[in-house]
Amino acid sequence: MKNKALHLRGYIESVKYDPRVRSKLLPRFTLDEFEIKINRRIPSGVIDFDEEVSLPYSKWLSPKPSRSYASGRVYRTYHMNKPIVVIPVLKDEGSGSRNNDRFTSTSLARMNLMGVYIVLAWYESARVNDRYDNRVKDHRLNVDWVVERIREIKPYRLSAHHWNQMHFKRDYESVYRQAVECYQRIGAECGVIMNSAENHLKLLEMCLVDGRFDLDAFIRSSDPRSARSARGEAMTLHDLEHLTDGRKAYLELKNFLGGSYHLTADEVFWEGDSLVIQESKNSRDALPKMSDVQDGLFKNILFMSIQELLLGDRPIQFKTRLKLTGVLKDSLMLPTRDDAAVTAFADRNNLKSDELELLRLLHVETIANPGLSIEIAPNS
To answer: What gap in Å lies between CA 336 and CA 360, rounded to an integer?
Structure first.
C-alpha cells in the first residue's frame, strides 16, 4: 500500500556533523538581558557571561519537538560549544485543545547522543485564548529556575550526556510537579478547564520506584508513547509535503548509550540498491525558509549517523537526502563539483539575494558532510 509506513531498525554509534546553513549572527545577550528575553519570540541565541565564556541556547515552545520547528532551533546553535536547549516538561493548552504534550525519553536520548545540554522548565503563567473555549495561550516560563540551571552548566566539565542524566534524576519530578500545579492555578485564574491534574500525576507515578523518580522507569513508561506517536505520524500525510517519491517510514534506532529513538522519515524509496531516507520541505516561493531547511537538516543528522540499517532482519544500503521543493523551473542535486551549475540554476530561477545565499550555504553543507545530498526541485 502506498500510504503504509515502512518499519526500519538501525544502530547509531556516534554523531559527527558540521552545520553550515545558518544566519551570520545569532542574537547575543548578557545573562540579565536573557532573563528578560527568554519569554519573548527569540528561538535561539547566545548568552555572553564575559569576554571568554559564551553559551548558545535554544528554546522549545513544547516538549513535543515536531511543534514550532524545534529541531531547527537547536540546529542554529549546534556549531558552537556546549549548546543548551530549554524545554518545558509539560505544555497543557487546556481541555479545549488536543495539544497536551509531555517530555519523552526519545528527546532525552537524542539530545544525549548529539551533545546538547537540556534544561527542564515549566510554564508558570498563561492567558485566556479568546478564539477558543477552554484554551490558554502565551505561556511564560519560570525564568529564575532556567537561569540557575544555566549558571550551573557554565562551569560544568562533564558531557551533555552526564549532565542530562544527573539533571533528570535530580530535578525531573520536582519540575513536573511544579508544571502540573501551575497549570491548575492558571486554569483557576483564567476560568479555563485544564486537562486533568490527576492524569498528569498518574503518568508521573509510572516513573517512580519506592516513591522516588527513577530514570529507567521514566524511559520504560514514555518509550511506548514515543513509539505510538512516531508510528501515528508515519501514517499521516500533510497537504504541503507532496510526498510523491515514496512512502513514509518509521525508524526504531538504538545507540551505544542505551538510548532508543522512534523517528519518522517523510519518505523512503529505492534508488538502485540503496534505500533513500528523505526529509522534505515545500514552499510556495522558490525555496523554503531557512528555518524550514534547518529543521529538515537537523532531523537528517541522526539518519546520516546510522551505522547499520535493517529491513526485517536484512541489512540494507541507504542514503540520506533533504528534498526542497518550490516554484522553480528545473532541478538541482547537491553536492556537485560543477560550481557553474549552481550559478546557472540560480540565474534560471531568478533567485533573490537571500535565496541565493541559502543555495550557496546548502552547497557548502553537502560538501562539509559527505553522505548528505540535497535535491532542489519544482513542486508538483
So the answer is: 12
Tens of pLDDT, residues 81-99: 999 999 999 999 999 998 8
pTM beyond cutoff 0.70: yes
Place of cell 522553480: 328
Question: Residue for cell digits 544500503?
Answer: 317
Task: At 161, list the grid cell.
Answer: 550526556
pLDDT confidence tier of residue 250, bands split at 50, 70 and 90: confident
The answer to whether the Cα torsion of 365, 304, 285, 43 is positive or negative is negative
CA 297 – CA 372 distance, rounded (Å): 9
Q: In this structure, are residues 113 and 124 in contact, taking their beta carbons and an 8 Å threshold? A: no
Nearest of 81, 111, 95 to residue 184 by alpha carbon? 95
Q: Which of 226, 244, 265 is the last residue of a domain?
A: 226
Beta-sheet pairing, 117-121 with 84-88? parallel
| Domain presence at residue 133 | yes
Q: What pLDDT band is residue 225 in, cutting at 50, 70 and 90?
A: low
Structure confidence at residue 22 (pLDDT): 87
Full domain range(s) for residue 360: 228-378
**Claim to verify: residue 265 and residue 152 sit in the same structural domain:** no
Per the domain annotation, does 7 fall within a domain? no
